[in-house]
């Protein structure tokens, strides 16, 4: 019980405004010195507490008998509190250990959470960077935007491996193959027109070899997301 009372007093004193707390500290130190000379001044700790308690703890009654009894109980209780404050004043200004431990625990948990949040942000940042890097590596000149009405045709086995082709109403698949074969270089001279074909790959189909008479603009409108590749049927 005594320990709990001291803890309660300790917390109440720490909650006081700084100016009030400093004033109380000076007063209690003075009263302790008064009680230390009890052999000369007859002011024991109990007497000092009884004299000073009414000055710090006031009770306003209304003159009735019940109130008088309450005042007596209040006076005895406040004198006991005053005695505790004088006798154990050195303990009143110290932050209790359980509060220190609680604050330390909260700080530790806060630091762990902050460290975890930093690690998560770092991971997300790295993932975003890796994805962006991967996208850049995957992106080729063929993926670049081309003007409206233009397709990019790939010919990995020919010297001219890529060419942007403007679509017209009359343009046919065979015309595109002929345009690539007209680029005389390297192994192109060994290939004949009947050996290579234009293929439609992806989009809304799998893969198919186009007839030379296929009108490209009409086909492009049906499958705008397809890739166009020139290769031989044996490749």
Automatic annotation (TrEMBL):
Gene3D superfamilies: Rho GTPase activation protein. GO terms for molecular function: GTPase activator activity. It comes from the Eukaryota. The keyword Cytoplasm does not apply. One of its GO terms (cellular component) is cytoplasm. One of its GO terms (biological process) is signal transduction. Residues 1-93 form the Rho-GAP domain. InterPro entries: RHG40/28/18_ubiquitin, Rho_GTPase_activation_prot, RhoGAP_dom. Pfam families: RhoGAP, Ubiquitin_RHG40_C. Signal peptide: none annotated. Keywords: GTPase activation. This is Rho GTPase activating protein 18. It comes from Hypotaenidia okinawae. The lineage of its organism: Eukaryota, Metazoa, Chordata, Craniata, Vertebrata.
């Amino acid at each position: 019980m005594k320990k709990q009372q001291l803890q309660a007093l300790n917390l109440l004193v720490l909650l006081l405004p700084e100016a009030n707390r400093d004033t109380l500290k000076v007063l209690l130190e003075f009263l302790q010195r008064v009680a230390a000379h009890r052999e000369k001044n007859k002011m024991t700790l109990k007497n000092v507490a009884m004299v000073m308690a009414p000055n710090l703890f006031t009770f306003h009654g209304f003159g009735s008998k019940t109130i008088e009894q309450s005042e007596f109980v209040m006076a005895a209780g406040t004198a006991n509190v005053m005695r505790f404050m004088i006798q154990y004043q050195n303990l009143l200004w110290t932050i209790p250990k359980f509060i220190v431990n609680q604050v330390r625990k909260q700080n530790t948990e806060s630091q762990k959470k902050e460290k975890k949040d930093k690690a998560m942000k770092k991971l997300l940042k790295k993932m975003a960077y890796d994805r962006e890097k991967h996208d850049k590596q995957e992106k080729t000149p063929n993926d670049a935007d081309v003007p409206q009405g233009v397709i990019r045709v790939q010919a990995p086995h020919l010297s001219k491996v890529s060419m942007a082709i403007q679509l017209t109403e009359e343009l046919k698949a065979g015309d595109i193959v002929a345009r690539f074969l007209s680029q005389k270089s390297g192994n192109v001279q060994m290939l004949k027109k009947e050996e290579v074909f234009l293929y439609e790959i992806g989009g809304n189909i799998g893969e198919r070899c186009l007839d030379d008479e296929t009108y490209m603009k009409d086909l492009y409108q049906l499958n705008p997301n397809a890739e166009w590749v020139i290769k031989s049927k044996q490749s």
